[in-house]
Amino acid sequence: MSSSSASPGPPPPADGLIGAARRHLGALARSLAHPSHPPTPLLAGSSRRWRRLAPYVVVTLLTALFVPVTFQILTSDYQVGRGLAALLALAQAGPLLMLAHRPLQAWWIVLCADVVGAVVLLTPLTDPSPTLVRLPPLPQELPWPWPPSVILGHLFVLLALGLRETRRTLVAVWLTICAAGLLLYLIGSDRDAGGVVLLPVLGAVVLVITAALRERGEAQRRLAEQETISETERAGRTLLEERTRIARELHDVVAHHMSVITVQADSAPYRIEGLPDQARAEFDSIAASARESLAEMRRLLSVLRSDGTDGERAPQPGLDRIQQLVEATVRSGLRVELSMGAEVSEAIREGLPQAVDLSAYRIAQEALANVVRHAPGARTRVSVTVAGPHLTVLVVNDGTGRPGSPLESTGTGHGLVGMRERVRLTGGTLDTGPLPDGGFRVAARLPLSAATPVPSVPLASEDS
């Protein structure tokens, strides 16, 4: 086989390493040129004003401290002229004012000023003006290339960087500091290398600690956001489940009425003599529409019912069974007192609206289940009254139970979500909340006449 038809081999490993090194170096250079955050203060999103102002106060104090200290060290220890010392102090410590919103740009200015200051300190100058230059050579015992004030100021800059920038930017900053120190050491090779190593070592410690704190804070923030999203999704799922349960229960109520309409329409020609043909046809149409509606409702119910579950065989409960509910709750260990006036019994005998009857029972059931879940053993009072055109269900506990017990009684488990949906269904009102003595109160007021349900409102979060 000719060489022209041979398949090209893999690229040499050296080319791959060189290409990867170029890509990484390019990424590091870009990270040094472009901050990873907008020019906003560290605590700009805080709700408290003093927290938003805190970064500005801190950087102002740092600048006010480091500018005179740097000037004093340069003039007294390093014998730098006052004019040049003032310029270096402003260049090395003045950018600390930028740490609140532009720490990367401040670091560049501080690094360049520190390098220039190190060259000035090392090089004896011959200008006779005592206000601009240092004439004697730098003594060997003085730290170089980074004076103490320079190291401390630079560490504060790195602290601000570690709290704001990405890990790649911090690595690039540290490598740049090491390169600058190495270059200065090559220039002043007669000096002790300890001063060159001190800033990279301390800087690495500061960057690692602050980066770890920043990443931990970001992880906690993301976790809190995820928990908020999960809680919202859980509340929405609970709301949908409760609405589906209510729809399944109301199927029995509506199906009963539709069945009665069908039977009455079918039997009307036999019960009423002398009906004209037009009336018979009308009754037949009513019966057919009722049967078709029943079939549609059964199909809807098959969609609402969960996979693998059968329909409920028992009739839907009402207030005539609330005494049995209270007795079952008492047997579970809860001290419950039931108060139901004669007017309620009379209303039950005369026949309550089925939606109201079912909703009142379910609200009492959920309220008692919540007491058993959250305050088992608390003394509880259940009161059902009729006042004018409204039925009121009141469940109050005194808060003397044992919070946090896992014991649970009957109920849908949807708590206040289910209560609100059932009250909204009947067009009533619900009042819930803690009592001054530590108990809890649930009061539902349901209209006994036909009412227009309150429009549904999406709930961001609900207590369960």
TrEMBL record:
It comes from the Bacteria. The keyword Transferase applies. This is histidine kinase. Its EC number is 2.7.13.3. Residues 362-450 form the Histidine kinase domain. It holds the Pfam family HATPase_c. It catalyses: ATP + protein L-histidine = ADP + protein N-phospho-L-histidine. It comes from Streptomyces halstedii. Keywords: ATP-binding, Kinase, Membrane, Nucleotide-binding, Phosphoprotein, Transferase, Transmembrane, Transmembrane helix, Two-component regulatory system. InterPro entries: HATPase_C_sf, HATPase_dom, His_kinase_dom, Sensor_HK_TwoCompSys, Sig_transdc_His_kin_sub3_dim/P. One of its GO terms (molecular function) is kinase activity. It is an enzyme of class 2 (transferase). The chain crosses the membrane at residues 53-74, 80-99, 106-126, 146-163, 170-187, 193-213.
